[in-house]
Model the fold of this input.
Amino acid sequence: MKRLLSCAVVVLLVLTGAGCFGGDSSVRVRVLASPELRDLEPLLEELREERGIRVELDYRPTVDLGDTLAEGTGGHDFAWPSSDGYLKLLLRDRKPPRNLPPSTPIMTSPVVIGVTAEVGRKLAARAQTPTWATVADLAATGDLRFAMGDPVHSGTGLAALVGVATAAAGTGQALRADDVRCDRLSGFWQGHAVATDSSAAAAGQFVQPGPLNGLIATESVLLKLNASGTLPEPLQIVYPADGIVLADHPLLLLNDKQRTTYDTVVEWLRTERAQRWIMDKTARRPVNPDVPRSERLARPVGTALYYPDDLSVVRKLQENYRKQGTPDLSHRYVVFVLDYSGSMREQIDALRSAFRELTSPSTGSFVRFYLGERIRVIRFADQVLEQRDFTFPGDTAELEKTIGATDFGENTAIWSAVDTAYAAGADLRRSAPGSQVSVVLMTDGRNNNGMSATDFLAAQRTRGTVGPLLAIRFGDADPAELSRVAGDTGGSVVDATGRSLADAFKETRGCF
Done:
């Protein structure tokens, strides 16, 4: 009888998850998790001791984690990314489409930016309530150098990119593919000095000696960094007024056989005690409404931005990020070819206004000339009237004088002027290999002097690759001819008919 009772006790212990030796777990689950969750390991040890469930975390950056799970579970029972938005889009794009596994938010933290006191003062001087546009403007002028997760791998980095791009689009809705334009974020990326696989790794880079004065990460990472005592002064945390993407750290069930264990883990992690531990130890916000937020988390997160509902939008954002090219602006060169024939007299005020917005925006802007950027301006009519080089911000006044010139001609030698621009670009690429060149043409007329479009293309083919032609057309400009030449160079045409010339110019920014 005693022998039977002993066996019964053993069976009961196994079924309830209790171990026979030192509380060792009889239930083990493998979890594919974001690297930021390392700080939860002590809490998960308490879970093992109380419920007999051993949670083994296998760390992978959130975007990489999503790519992995789109192909299969890889033997994992749960997944714990910073957000499941990207994975949801991946699964929906599969053929046939797949649904997101059961998912439960465990804690939240908004993706924000921390800056030094000096940068904070500069942000405040630009705007009483800073926005992502204010941040982008400061980055473009060289006053902000920040670390951030690489959006190709990091969930926090991708969330920040979605937030900035959504704010730049200004639609108040989820991003569409047409909203993702290379011009909007080029200035912002000028300040991106360090890329890492996670926001926690970005924080590690920030504390190293160097020029960094900003860190884009989750609120929790910034609060913990401020409390760590490793900084000379705490970072000011900025919650951009134009919107924030929230990381809700959901736990996903991958293995249906572990459903009971999943429910137990979720229930335990959302208890008041566990939620208080998460809040106090990791500075993340509790999802349990019965747990009041601590003082350091009392601030509202502000406007929540929508995550894109189309995978192509995310892919386009990531591709534009990859195409940012060299951060050394001494190797980026834009040639503006501006029509000063007689018909342009009516457009000259709009042209001057457009350049004024690029040189000295009155408020935070996603589009402007960047610190150290070099351009050449070629004015033409019957022939080239003038060509000059400028570097920003030092040559701003001289550029305004050049754009303000009033010597107009009667004819329009479009392709001779463009040929001059491409000859200058070819010379630059020979003298400085690796340079990026783009040519921006603005015209309201048809070519009636000098080289023909065919002549230009023939001459250009002898030079080899120089860079794209981005043609801004309005008035009587020939759309077919401009499209043919722009397409041959890898560029495009921006139609300014019936719209602001300044907006048309801005659309060409960063597009090379």
Observations:
- Residues 1-23 have pLDDT under 50 and may be disordered.
- The first strand starts at residue 27 and ends at 33.
- The two ends are 84 Å apart (CA to CA).
